[in-house]
Design goal:
Blueprint: H1 2-8, H2 18-37, E1 46-50, E2 57-60, E3 71-73, H3 75-93, H4 97-109
Antiparallel strand pairs: 1-2, 1-3
Helix pairs in contact: 1-3, 2-3
Length: about 120
């Protein structure tokens, strides 16, 4: 569905390079990090709407279901964007992501505790 939506919105009218797709996935991770660096908690969500094209977005916290015209913002939304872009890429390249995840998780289960020894 993510790939179909991207196609229907014109994002694939011109083919993208694999490098561009990976850069876009990376940019969503960078946006999540930037939200964290500016003091937002990992679970915080807020909503924005632009009142006019040349105005700054109006932000609000919202309890319950927001109007669908309000853009969800925050780390949860950026993480969702990462997954959506990954699903889009998998749709474009015919990757069976469920199979890849199942195989990788099975392999990871065989790895030693904190393998690699890297701090970060």
């Amino acid at each position: 569905m993510a790939h179909q939506n991207a196609v229907s919105k014109g994002w694939w009218d011109e083919d993208r390079s694999f490098g561009e797709i990976i850069a876009l996935i990376h940019s969503e991770a960078s946006e999540a990090l930037e939200d964290y660096r500016t003091g937002h908690s990992p679970s915080e969500t807020w909503y924005e709407v632009k009142v006019a094209q040349d105005e700054e977005p109006f932000q609000m916290k919202h309890e319950g279901t927001p109007d669908p015209t309000w853009k969800p913002c925050g780390i949860p939304s950026e993480l969702a964007d990462i997954v959506i872009r990954v699903f889009d890429a998998c749709g474009r390249y015919g990757i069976d992501l469920e199979k890849a995840i199942t195989e990788k998780m099975a392999y990871n289960a065989t790895r030693p505790q904190r393998h690699g020894g890297k701090v970060i």
